[in-house]
Amino acid sequence: MRLILIFGVDVIGENPKRFAVVGWFNGKLEGKGEFTLHRLIRFIQIKRPDIVAIDSVTELGEDLRKFLRSLPPGTKLVQVTGKPGEQKSLQSLAKEHGIKTADRFDPYEEARLSALLASKGVGYEVLAFEDEVIIKVARGRSPGKGGWSQDRYRKRVHNLVRDKVREIEERLRRAGIPFDLETEERDYGLARGEFRVYASREELAGLVSPMHGGDVEVRIYPVERAELGFAPLRGEEAIRERRSIIVGIDPGITVGIAAIDLNGRIIALHSERNMPVGEVFRFISEIGHPVIVATDVSPAPGFVEKIARSFKAQLFVPRESFRVEEKSELLRNLGITVEDDHQGDALAAAYKAYLRLKPKLEHIDARLKEAGLSKKADEVKALVIQGYNLGEAMQMVSLRERPKVEEERGDERKAPDLEPYLRRIRELERRIEMLENENRELKEIIREQRETIGKLERKIADYDEEVRKKVLREKELEAKVKRIEALERQLREAKAIIERLGRDLVQVKRMNVVEARGSAVPLKVMEVLSWHELERIEREVGLRKGDVLFVINPAGAGRAIAEKLVEKGIRALITEKPIPEPVKAVLRGAHVPFFTGEELDVKRVDDFAVVERKTLEDAIEKLLRKWEEDREREAEKFLKLIEEYRIERAKELERKALEETERKRTKEV
After folding, report:
1. What is the rounded CA–CA span in Å between residue 661 and residue 381?
2. pLDDT at residue 54 tops 90
3. Cα(96)–Cα(117) distance, rounded to whole angstroms?
4. pLDDT tens-digit map of 589-602
């Protein structure tokens, strides 16, 4: 048995606001005290009661929202006198539920009555929050400014935020709780993640917990309603006080709402664009109390589940989403025209739920007619839908119909001796009736399932054949696509070759035209003096004996490539930049002239260059003549050196001969 703690609260005075508090714990009244608002909030947060009961929330005044925000998870604020506009006095409710009253002007007495009434399930829960929760995941502290260590720390924190977001996402999916997720990526991780979870804070208990003070921070915020809502603490109380209805809802940008009574009569049709949950709640509350909330799609949207939970109503979800033809047929049977598809979808959902219950409701009508309770048919039907068996529902309604005089009697009367046996008989009758109904329903479900299985088997056979044909077509198509891609690739390659050859042909033609005219000599242009460029020239335009090369940058070339040019028999080499000394030595040794572009006034456009033939011929002749003169000068200089050496040597020999003669003469003397 679950232990329940309830606090009854009533205002004592203002300035400062003070409250009388009476506790009710598991059937016993326990203690009382006087609290300011601040101390009352702290006391509730420490004790964490299941219910805080008050006769009217207006007593909290401007502090109502603050009070609701401060309530711990699982604690309800209950207005025991009813929802606004339908309130009853505490004393009349106490008499109605057999509770003795005393001084109505004593705040502690008012708090006691509030606690006792709430313990009997009387009152309306004050709904300050939607069945939605915002979960924000972000870094817990700033990473600082600059530096490698800060960058590494920032990346680590963003990875931790990403891991925490994934962990929460996985937990919500495993629990089957619908949600939306927005993230901000940063450093291959996440800077933040924000969940909008379509469930109450209590449903998240044990799944997601707040985190503070570390590298990652998790904060949980319930979404507040624009206006307060009121939901009955027990379903049967709302059933007794208000008309019971079946509501169909079509969620979306435009919300469709349809309401029918338990006899299948249409009560309301409405559709509105951008209709918030709170407005839907208020619209339905003005019509009546829904015992069933229905949808036309499977699985049920989170919006519809939220409305059903708010009213503590049964949720009707079809085995499979309605087809358009099925909805059209339902509307034709009703003989009604709707304003738009949203109203039509909502009405189809509500009416389908009614048709599913219709046999059970007709059986209830027959039994109530025999018992003389036809006037209370709606109330009994609603209780049965909520889970009571027919006997229990009839007994509850019958007890409420007793004369008021009997209710006001203070003395309790003993039940007849036969009452236990009669009660046992009624219980057995209810059990038999329930089993018979379940048996009929199960047989109907089995029949429908067999029909569905037969249809599905036929569909599977047809689908298998279609799939086989589709696979064959896809294979053929895939082979053709691959063949087309290969041909397109070959075509692109061929076009690239043709384009390159075309450019080469144009260049060769231009060089041939210039050469044929004889006024200028075409030059074969190389970007650098390298083996790769040499191979390119030979491949694209060819390199023949007597050709003149124009090299833009000969830096880095060595003797080997210079010797190759000499071997090819080039006539001359022209460069834009200075030629390396090893290249000069090889070319000069082979009598291959070399010049700079400035010396010969080379004309160049892109990969095409020319030089005036006469200028080139004169330069070559001049350079070769200069080299010849230099060679002759060097030869003369060499011969002169040899002659000088010969004369010096002769003088040296003559001097040595004289010295030898003088030495001999000296010896003789």
Report:
1. 162
2. yes
3. 10
4. 888 898 888 888 78
Give the H/E segment covering residue 6: strand 5-13
**Furthest C-alpha separation in the chain:** 187
Helix (H, G, I), strand (E, B) or coil at 580: coil
Helix H or strand E encompassing 215: none
**One-letter identity of residue 544:** R
- Catalogue the E-assigned strands of 389-429: none
The Cα 312–Cα 237 span in angstroms is 12
Residue 24 has which token pair?
């009710």
Structure tokens at 360: 């059970």
501: its two tokens: 């050859």
Cα separation of 179 and 428, whole Å? 45
Phi, psi of 292 (to 5 degrees): -135, 135
pTM check: above 0.85 = no
Token pair in block for residue 105: 């002007």
Strands 5-13 and 51-54: parallel
Report phi then psi at 205, rounded to 5. Answer: -60, 130
| Predicted local distance difference test score (pLDDT) of residue 505 | 74
Residue 232's DSSP bridge partners are: 124
CA distance 130 to 203: 13
Say which DSSP state 322 is in. Answer: P
Alpha-carbon span 451 to 148, nearest angstrom: 69
Three-state DSSP class for residue 635: helix
Report the distance separating Cα 127 and Cα 201, nearest Å.
13
Residues 6+ away with beta carbon under 8 Å from 359: 440
As to burial, measured by CB atoms within 10 angstroms (0-12 exposed, 13-18 middle, 19+ buried), residue 63 is middle
**Nearest residue to 276 via CA among 257, 296, 295, 299:** 257
Give the CA distances from residue 425 to residues 400, 418, 431, 663, in Å, rounded to whole numbers and listed in that order. 21, 11, 10, 171
Q: How many CB atoms lie within 10 A of CB 594?
A: 21
